[in-house]
């Protein structure tokens, strides 16, 4: 490498030295001066290129050792990309091997010979990224603006530094360079604040947004126009307050409720923003919201990570720490993070003043990160996802760690995967809004027709139309919104005080009716369907299997693993591969399980606990502990087991570890048995890959299928003894592969396959159960029978999701599961969907990579098929993918979508759903706080939907229709009177009568419909199919609406015509006519409400009797409107009975006949249950 560098050093070092000298200087200089010097450097570099000399064009620039900070302040980042194959330079063309040294010895990538550049670390960027780069001189020309006439101000926005060699491999450093000593000071305004804000409004947007949300509904806008019209004397009818007060009341209640909700959100945000963290630069505690990029902070155990950090140090000597990522990706298994070797042992003062971090630009992916940490500009380590601590994760390890802030606020992974909360509107309100438009159009047509019949000879015909519009405004009563809003509060109270679903909280009280309209349920897995509590339920050795009931047998076998040393000093802890009796096979299996994992034991408060990235591994280690072989100690280089029966410590040296990942689907380890001086390769993995690795057998496929049908997560266990020579051959090949700069991962995997993964001894099969939440199976079965299509969206592995789906009965017995994985290219994607078009009873299992491809290329085709399937399981989903699916299903189907989850990674999905449900559980309360409804268990969802959803929807539907009926019938009376009075726009009922009609005289009985229910609660679980009627929206449809319109028309005409017949429309009889018609109107409504009740209770009875009594008692005070002497006549009573009989009896009879001939589903169920 040295000779390569020397051969072209003259061609590249001008830029290196130019930047180095300025980075080391501290005197300030203007941007113009810098541009001028830069242009001179570029010109000299061009001359140098032609001459291929070793001159240094930057030598004429006097070094300024005090301008380092100013340089960084003026130039936030610097972009430089070198592409070896495109570097059009004679010296580089002459030798194909000179491309890598271009940057190797530069000050930009000053890496020691011992650093990670040469170590077997994962490559940062795929070679394909390099092919997209432009010629180096074109990039310099475009970036630095060679033309001196161009603007002398350079726009430095993003920086990308890459190194390349002849194998087209590179390390790319991203778009921000962080110096802990200066970045928090000079660049504090460059990056977003770290304050968290989940509030929907601020003081300036609160009123405008809420007014828009209210008046975007047509009937609210209609009420407003009618209320404003009363300020015009010519249009005024009755009291102005009768129009203004109800509307003002609705707006006040809504705004107060939204304000309180937003204040609660702000309070929660304030708690997070005011958390204190120790900042090393300031040597004091700083609030989370005041953290800046470049701050180095100390995190203690169980503390939330306040922003995206790069881990610099851990209190563990190995530099390791574990974090809980459940609030980010939904997985409660702990993730291992490792501090870079270059910073792990530095002093705090050196961390502040002598390191530099280069980080890639912010992005959504929570599984990717590119960066580099440099110490003293001499040694460095690359940074990957293994060195990061993302915001909202929690430090799980004992002790503490130190990290540097690289992203804050909206740049954090958590924020970029979280959508802003929106104001949700119920489907019922949208349907009522559409019906209101029909009613308004009817009112306008009716008004024009009445004026038309009266003739347009009147010069005030326009005013007459307006007055008619106001007179008939009761057709769309303002009390409709009041009743509906109050009803929602009643439903919320009933839900929160239901003892069967305790601790349920309604956070959004505007959409309870939507609980009865859900057609798609999108559920998280971990913590939602499962408890994330793993337990090993079965081990199978081919000829025999063991369950928790037979653990004593396994313990007896394990107890003989280590004999008394005096009797047998050459005991073989790892029994030979020869087939022996069951005891030897069990001991081999248990020993392998105790060694083949990534679990670390820790002692807290004198209690042994385990830390691991997978709960499956912890379950297996706990199993080996229960049978007498405990994991005693582990570090990077060794592992020790405690044989409890003998008290012996079995020591093994860890030579290689091959971690589990979704590609290989297996995990392996090579250990050296220090007692017997033997090398062992141990491996476990999914049956789909292990079946090709282990020796041939006849039972593996059958038993894995049996365990899968039991809902167990299966792992195949195998091992292989290696000779020292075999291990050395593998080690040499593996090390060579790990040092390659091209296709490193593939080469390493090939070495493992070639030297290790063949003819492994098949030891057995394990079955681990992820315990389901209480009553999950029955709940899912109920929901599916109710016609709800269930999608499970999880960040977990495909195999895990499949097992949980089977155990939770999301996949029915015998149901075909169509699996689509690793589909990252559009070719052949549509063919994968063909089977699902034919068999719509199949279940789809798809991973996040394939899902992302379909969303990009074939979104319409994919969802046109998948929305008809009874169940879809999507694995490895990002939080944003979950949210996107919810939005797309809403867009494609127009149906109500409910999303349920319990982790911070579910927040976006919950907020994008029509109805978001959060579960309070092990993963905290973030999902619960962001949800519309908060519950404590998944099984509570069934009652929330099937019972409370049913009641909320059916009650509100009936309430809305009754309120409209109440407005329609009085408007019909007004229309009949106007027609009979020569089309004069004269008010039939005025003043208090209009106010009282919509409030004191009818509101309580009508509102008591919110306490009614058509079936008993138990029947909703016995016959969940009843929910399908709600999904179809049959309780409030255009059909039912027009039935109520005809009913109102009939009753209004009957009441008014017979009232006029028994009196007259003459002026002297006007008060008599108003007396009998208004009284008939009130009693008609009370009787109609009573006929609609399915289940009477005390409150309903009191409202009926109380309202009627109140009306009778108020009549003596209504002499202004009524002829009180008329009330005392016997003829009044008989005429009233006649009117009511003609108004109600035909309606009641026709409904009874229709119910007999066409009974609704709930009526059939009631009759059947009473038999």
UniProtKB/TrEMBL annotation:
P-type ATPase C-terminal domain: residues covered: 929-1159
GO CC terms in record: endosome membrane; plasma membrane; trans-Golgi network
Molecular-function GO term, any one: ATP hydrolysis activity
SUPFAM superfamilies (UniProt xref): Calcium ATPase, transduction domain A, Calcium ATPase, transmembrane domain M, HAD-like, Metal cation-transporting ATPase, ATP-binding domain N
Cell compartment(s), UniProt: Endosome membrane; Membrane
Family: Belongs to the cation transport ATPase (P-type) (TC 3.A.3) family. Type IV subfamily.
Protein name, as recorded: Phospholipid-transporting ATPase
Encoding gene (name): TBLA0J01460
